[in-house]
Design a protein that fits this description.
By secondary structure, this protein is of the alpha/beta class. It has 6 helices and 11 strands.
């Protein structure tokens, strides 16, 4: 409802046009790898706005999580799927544009707390359902969020961080306009979701990699 305390992050050099757009919003922190000199002056126009430069860092390959009476040590999830990693599961193939959106949505689902569902279109996040105990709940949360902002879901893609044990998620997504899906696969009931997609003109690809973030 509000951008109060908002943080805006860019992964490319921030130019004057972007700085002007940012200044039209209520944004308290801006982070970018570099800035045009004039862009910095524009951003300084808001009193107390914090402007940070993001430095290149090398992330550790190990992660630690605190647990009762100890810690959990685990490998960092460094996998990023590319087009060659997508295995077609349905008779219908996604278009080249949809493949770009699928890869984009899959990256977002990797970094979102499980259970998660990500809905995207034209390389834009429309909504995500995150941290739910049910994948259906995660999907319904995402749909509700997208519809609240009046995003057009027709032709959108859906990414899931884990497999679908039932076809309910692809059915719900298809009913609001989702046309293609990416998921890791691996359920003994994968075929139920595949069959639903085949009967309802939805394409599905599988990655074989489960990005399950807790």
């Amino acid at each position: 409802m509000s951008a109060f305390g908002g943080i805006l992050i860019s992964n490319t050099r921030l130019d004057v046009a972007t700085a002007n757009e940012i200044s039209s919003l209520f944004c308290e922190v801006v982070i970018a790898p570099s800035y045009e000199a004039e862009a910095i002056e524009i951003l300084k126009g808001k009193k107390n706005r914090i402007i940070l430069i993001q430095k290149e860092i090398v992330l550790s390959k190990r992660q630690f999580r605190t647990i009762l009476n100890g810690v959990l040590e685990q490998d960092r999830d460094t996998v990023i799927e590319v087009e060659d990693d997508l295995k077609l599961a349905t008779s219908k193939e996604p278009t080249s544009r949809e493949i770009e959106d699928l890869l984009f949505a899959n990256k977002l689902s990797k970094h979102t707390k499980s259970n998660t569902i990500v809905i995207a279109k034209n390389k834009q996040l429309l909504a995500s359902g995150t941290g739910q105990t049910s994948r259906v709940d995660a999907l319904n949360q995402a749909i509700h969020k997208a519809q609240t902002f009046k995003f057009d879901l027709n032709g959108a893609v859906m990414a899931s961080d884990a497999f679908f044990p039932f076809p309910d998620c692809v059915e719900i997504a298809g009913n609001v306009g989702v046309k293609t899906v990416v998921q890791p696969g691996g359920s003994i009931k994968d075929q139920l979701s595949i069959d639903y997609c085949d009967k309802n003109d939805i394409s599905m690809v599988m990655t074989g990699v489960r990005h399950f973030k807790h």
